[in-house]
Fold this protein.
Amino acid sequence: MTDSAFEATLRSLRVWDTDLPDFDPDDAPDDPLPLFRDWFVDAARAGQPEPHAMQLATVDAAGHPDVRTVMLHGADARGWRFATHSTSTKGRQLAACPDAALHFYWPARARQVRLRGRVTAGSPAEAYDDLHARSTGALAAALVGRQSEPLPSLQVLREASDASWALAETDPAAGVATWTVYHLAAREAEFFQGDARRRHVRLRYLRDGDGAWTRGLLWP
C-alpha cells in the first residue's frame, strides 16, 4: 500500500457518526464503580463489539511502558479483574511493579474510561474458579502455557494447542498452576463522554488515603 493511500484513508475517517448520549456529571454517583457498570451495560446494549476488551498498561524493570489488550473478568468492590499467566510478560511486570492502568474505549457511545491503581493477585482457588467458569477453548489456551516465550514455529504451536485441546476435553477439571487472577484497585478513575462539537465531558474521581472519593471536571 502506498503512502498516499494510507494518508488519504486516514484523513477520510470520521468518528462518532451517530447520536451521542447525554452525560450530566452532576448526576454521577459518589463512587466510580456504579457508573462504570452502567456505562458498560449501556455500551453492550448499544451494540459495541467486545465491550469487555480493555487495554492494560504496565512498566518493565527499566520503567519502560508496555500495553496490550486483555479481557475484563469482573468489576466489584475489590477492583477491576482480569487474568493471565504469572509467568507471562505482564505477569512478571506486575510482580515487579504492581502499579498499572486500564483503558476502555466504546466508540458506539463515544465513551472512554481510564483507571489507575495498584494490582494484587488473587488466590489459587480464585484462579481455578475463574478458569473453569470459561470455555473449553479458554482452558485449552491456558494449558498451552509458555505465554510470551519465543516460539520456534507455528507448527510447534499447532501441536501444543492440539494436545491442550485434547486434555481440556478429556479432563475439564485440569488445573493450570500459573493461571492468576488480578485485581486493580483504582485510586483514579476518569469517565470521558465525547461531544460532536468537541466539548467533551471529562469527570475524574480521585481516592484519598481514607478510601473516600472526590470528583472533579477536567478540561477536554
